[in-house]
Design a protein that fits this description.
Cofactor: Zn(2+)
Distance between the termini: 36 Å
EC number: 3.4.24.-
Radius of gyration: 25 Å
Family: Belongs to the peptidase M3B family.
CATH architecture of one domain: Orthogonal Bundle
Oligomer: single chain
GO molecular function, one term: metalloendopeptidase activity
Function: Has oligopeptidase activity and degrades a variety of small bioactive peptides.
Bound molecules: zinc ion
Helix content: 55-70%
Shape: globular
Structural class: mainly alpha
CATH superfamily of one domain: Oligoendopeptidase f, C-terminal domain
Number of helices: 24
CATH topology of one domain: Neurolysin, domain 3
Length: about 600
């Protein structure tokens, strides 16, 4: 492509203000920001003086928490402002400086408060319990205090914790080495793209090429990508094993039964949630087998390989949305959530909470971000297609969750845990799916929307649970003293992969090494939440769509709950008991119903 044919992105200054987020409600200008920054910096220095007062009585304890939270709250505000500024144009030197300054401010804040949790846990258990019952000052903080102190049995002496903190950089080396190799040093071969052009393979290029409609293109990308990882397979087994050993070590010195229990305990999630997921997904693997077999049939391939799983099977739909039409569609799709919800979505559109279009230097992808005292802003990189509409309702789900939480909870409960976060966003995606299926009768559009849902379910519920099972196996092997060699990892992974996809897919030998390139295996029991969140959202959306007002109210109450209760209790009140398999069964029933629809439609096309 000639240089002058390449579409140029606008600079930040060239983007119409109406399509940018308005950050002036946070700080009117840089002077206001700088004044507040300096005031907080001074306030942070005073935090160490609060040390030693927690045992003095409930009034003192409440006063310390209030002072501390007031400073954290102000610091979060400058931090959010700087990071939003930075993301809108990461190439801007002033924004870089702003972001750097607030990051170091947050580090100073954390180190000035390092004493707080150990000191709170050192308060005598019975005394503290009495205070929480008697003291009106402490009541608003009861759940927060109980959350912190429930970890008591797993905290070592201050000297031991300090020693571990000093070792943490060294213990994290395996994970860093993986990132360096994976993000910086690995060099991939030259391959051919859809247009017959040669292109150097990268993670981003691979994601494109594996979706190619030309079998040779995706096969080549697959073979070449894995040949590169395979050259470093022993190194990659070693970095992953080192990381697993760190988790197991950390769990064992903190008196946990397992690394899994330690990781889940951070959000007070019982391991039963994990087990329910794995059990239910395994029981429903025949549905995945059926779906991939259908994929093989529609693509008319003599053999279905692992590299044939991402190419679209229904082609591109004729649907296209400008941001303006997408807003109208989003409002219609989310109308089932009621007039109150809808009015806040309208506010988000009218008050410039969304940074819409791409510009030079803007952070890629999409997110919802903010804090207690700011609007829940959204960053998008809008394209006129259905995928962007899905992204819009997804991020709107996060933002409305934040909006309802901050408007119904005090600051100390004005946030929510990652375990419940993706439920709000994915519920909206499910509502959009329902709306589109009801609204568009064109069979090709119907098939495309159904396929979008089925692929999402496959990639989130089935695939992430496969990862979760493998992660669990890794930690158990290491805990049992079994060496995590490349051969051991690859043969276990291949077996698991065959189990998941069944006989319809050829388990290409390369896929045995897939574990070596998944960054999420370094996150410490993170992936299962994608699967539980998607399944819960699927079930909740069905309830909302059924027109049952009680179910809709229960859902809105979840959005309003923030962190005022443990995530598992919040979801229970919304009607989903995530320690049981019922919610998973009903999500699989929906998957099956839509698979039936898709199969019938595909036969007609
Ligand atoms: Zn999300």
């Amino acid at each position: 492509m000639l240089a002058d044919e390449i579409k140029q992105l606008p600079t930040r200054a060239e983007v119409a203000p109406a399509l940018t987020w308005d950050l002036t409600p946070i700080f009117s200008d840089l002077t206001a920001f700088n004044d507040e920054f300096k005031a907080i910096d001074d306030a942070i220095k005073g935090l160490a003086d609060l040390q030693g007062q927690l045992e003095q009585g409930p009034k003192q304890l409440a006063a310390v928490i209030e002072t501390m939270m007031a400073v954290i709250r102000r610091a979060e505000k400058v931090y959010v402002y700087a990071s939003l500024k930075h993301d809108q144009d990461t190439g801007d030197a002033d924004n870089q400086a702003l972001s750097g300054r607030t990051q170091s401010l947050m580090t100073r804040l954390q180190s000035q408060l390092a004493w707080f949790e150990p000191e709170l846990m050192a308060v005598d258990e019975t005394t503290l319990k009495q205070w929480l019952t008697d003291s009106s000052e402490l009541k608003p903080y009861a759940h927060y205090i109980e959350s912190v102190t429930s970890q008591r049995a797993h905290v070592l002496t201050p000297a031991a914790e300090q020693l571990l903190a000093q070792a943490s950089d060294a213990l994290g080396a395996s994970s860093n080495t993986f990132s360096m190799l994976n993000d910086a040093d690995l060099e991939f071969p030259i391959v051919t793209d859809d247009d017959g052009q040669t292109v150097q393979l990268s993670q981003g290029v691979y994601d494109q090429l594996i979706q190619s409609t030309q079998p040779e293109v995706r096969k080549m990308a697959f073979k070449q990508l894995y040949s590169t990882y395979h050259q470093f397979i022993h190194t990659l087994a070693s970095t992953l094993a080192g990381n697993v050993k760190t988790h197991n070590f950390d769990a064992s010195v903190h008196h946990y039964d397992s690394a899994r229990q330690a990781a889940l305990n951070r959000n007070h999630i019982p391991v039963a949630v994990y087990d329910a997921l794995v059990t239910s997904v395994n029981a429903h693997l025949p549905l995945l087998h059926r779906y991939v077999a259908l994929r093989k049939k529609i693509l008319q391939l003599p053999e279905l390989h692992m590299y044939d799983l991402y190419t679209p099977i229904t082609g591109e739909p004729q649907l296209s949305y400008t941001f303006e039409t997408a807003k109208a569609e989003a409002l219609k799709a989310l109308a089932v959530l009621g007039p109150d919800y809808l009015s806040h979505v309208q506010t988000a559109f009218d008050s410039r909470w969304i940074d819409v279009v791409e510009n030079k230097g803007k952070r890629s992808g999409a997110y919802s971000g903010g804090m207690y005292d700011t609007a829940p802003y959204m960053l998008l990189n809008w394209q006129d297609n259905l995928e962007s509409l899905f992204t819009l309702v997804h991020e709107m789900g996060h933002s409305m969750h934040s909006y309802y939480t901050t408007h119904n909870q005090p600051y100390q409960y004005g946030d929510y845990s990652i375990f419940v976060a993706e439920i709000a966003s994915t519920t909206n995606e499910n509502l959009l799916t329902d709306y589109l299926l009801k609204t568009y009768s064109d069979k090709r559009v119907q098939a495309f929307v159904l396929n979008h849902y089925l692929d999402g379910f496959k990639g989130t519920v089935f695939r992430q649970t496969q990862f979760a099972e493998f992660e669990q196996w890794l930690h158990e092997q290491d805990a049992a003293g079994e060496p995590l060699t490349a051969d051991a990892l690859s043969s276990a992974y291949l077996k698991l992969n065959q189990h998941y996809y069944g006989d319809a897919v050829i388990s290409d030998p390369e896929i045995a090494d897939e574990w070596s390139r998944i960054p999420h295996f370094y996150y410490n029991y993170y992936v299962y939440q994608y699967a539980t969140g998607f399944a819960a959202a699927n079930t909740l959306a069905s309830g909302i769509n059924s027109g049952d007002d009680a179910k809709r109210e229960a859902y809105l109450n979840y959005l309003k709950s923030g962190s005022s209760a443990d995530p598992i209790d919040v979801m229970k009140r919304a009607g989903v008991d995530m320690t049981q398999t019922d919610y998973l069964d009903s999500a699989f029933a929906e998957f099956e119903r839509r698979l039936d629809q898709f199969e019938a439609l595909a036969a007609e096309l």
